[in-house]
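To the wet lab folks,

You asked to see what we're planning to order before we commit. Fair enough. Below is the target structure as tokens, and below that is the sequence we designed to fit it. If anything looks off to you, flag it before the synthesis order goes out.
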């Protein structure tokens, strides 16, 4: 068993932890009639969006696996992918399609569902076989690095597939996948990653790995490790990583954070600070963390990040302005495709975001993931799992209850009060 760091944990979001449900009061000024109407309309809108996501996943998995013409560059046959070199060289690309297949398989029946499950199982097993190291980490090469970044991305994605296929896995496969996720968590603990600020997105990913390990194994130490990792992501050692952690650009007054803004610092060519594009990756990992934990503390952080990013989103074309970031310093934009918006709309007590989540799907998610150019490189392939497939899981999953709350702090302040608000 790994040696575990035992330090006092920060009670991340004390006001949110006291909430018994992730449903929060309506904004001031909202009429009771409007609230009742939203409550009646929400299930229909949620179901409609889930069906659109299902159709998107089924269509893209079919398109990527079938050879439709002599000029086709992507197909799958006899257990082997044919794809561009950059895709085949990626540790994440085929796994992304595998998870998309796993999630889509639970939404269909018959021979098609069977074929999707087979594709998913083959993809996850190939990832474990090819990239899992003897120490529990995942890496493209034993000599390349310690593997902590690949470990975060691959193990949380495998956990998504595990939850999607659930009882459909035979005992040996379920054990193999579960061991790969708990082994990844043990590696990160042994490697000291829970007390090391790599960058905002990876530190949140560390917490997601721990929560996935708890969800798959039920072992209490992984729940404790979840809060250890997330506490450090929020408030790392400033003497070692000045300016790192959660930065508030607008301190929230509400317990659910719906009136606040913030981001987790990323360090790159532009220094340490706000990087809009990597904040979407942070939001994706927080969305995974919520899938695995169902905790309201996570929703509060998602609220802060969604509000921060939306200030840069043109809701006409759903482009996120990523210019001038701490890591991506040039002038640029990306489609705003994170599932965090839909998560807050239907799981986070933000009915004000429901129409926007539908518009986001139509103008950004669907458009982005049906553009052939997205599949010339690995990002579109992996993104199928971390965005539309994850969004579908968040909309339809029955979250397992009972994830332990963060331990109470003996200090008199919450992590948020320890973060210096700055101007955006």
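Sequence we intend to order:
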């Amino acid at each position: 068993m790994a040696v575990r760091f035992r330090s006092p944990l920060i009670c991340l979001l004390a006001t949110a932890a006291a909430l018994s449900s992730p449903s929060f009061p309506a904004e001031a000024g909202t009429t009771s009639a409007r609230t009742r109407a939203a409550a009646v309309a929400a299930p229909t809108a949620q179901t409609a969006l889930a069906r659109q996501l299902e159709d998107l996943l089924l269509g893209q998995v079919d398109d990527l696996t079938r050879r439709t013409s002599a000029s086709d560059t992507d197909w799958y046959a006899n257990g082997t992918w044919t794809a561009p070199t950059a895709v085949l060289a990626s540790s994440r690309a085929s796994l992304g399609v595998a998870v998309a297949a796993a999630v889509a398989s639970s939404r269909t029946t018959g021979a098609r569902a069977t074929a999707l499950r087979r594709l998913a199982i083959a993809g996850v097993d190939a990832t474990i076989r090819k990239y899992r190291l003897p120490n529990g980490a995942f890496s493209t090469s034993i000599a390349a690095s310690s593997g902590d970044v690949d470990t975060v991305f691959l193990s949380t994605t495998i956990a998504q597939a595990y939850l999607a296929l659930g009882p459909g896995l035979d005992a040996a496969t379920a054990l193999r996948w579960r061991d790969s996720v708990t082994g990844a968590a043990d590696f990160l603990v042994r490697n000291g990653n829970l007390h090391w600020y790599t960058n905002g997105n990876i530190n949140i990913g560390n917490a997601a790995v721990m929560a996935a390990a708890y969800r798959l194994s039920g072992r209490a130490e992984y729940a404790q490790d979840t809060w250890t990792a997330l506490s450090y992501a929020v408030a790392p050692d400033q003497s070692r990583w000045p300016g790192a952690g959660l930065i508030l650009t607008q301190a929230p007054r509400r317990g659910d954070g719906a009136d606040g803004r913030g981001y987790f610092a990323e360090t790159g060519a532009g220094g340490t600070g706000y990087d809009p594009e990597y904040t979407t990756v942070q939001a994706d990992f927080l969305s995974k963390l919520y899938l695995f934990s169902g905790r309201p503390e996570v929703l509060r952080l998602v609220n802060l990040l969604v509000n921060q990013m939306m200030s840069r989103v043109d809701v006409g074309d759903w482009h996120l302005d990523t210019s001038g970031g701490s890591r991506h310093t040039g002038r640029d934009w990306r489609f705003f495709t994170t599932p965090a918006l839909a998560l807050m709309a239907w799981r986070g007590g933000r009915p004000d975001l429901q129409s926007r989540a539908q518009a986001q799907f139509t103008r950004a998610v669907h458009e982005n993931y049906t553009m052939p150019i997205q599949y010339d490189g690995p990002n579109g392939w992996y993104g199928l799992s971390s965005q539309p497939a994850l969004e579908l899981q968040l909309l339809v999953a029955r979250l397992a209850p009972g994830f332990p709350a963060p331990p109470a702090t003996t200090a008199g302040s919450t992590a948020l009060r320890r973060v210096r608000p700055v101007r955006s």
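Structural context that might help your review: Residues 50 and 396 are 7 Å apart (CA to CA). The radius of gyration is 20 Å.

Thanks,
Computational group
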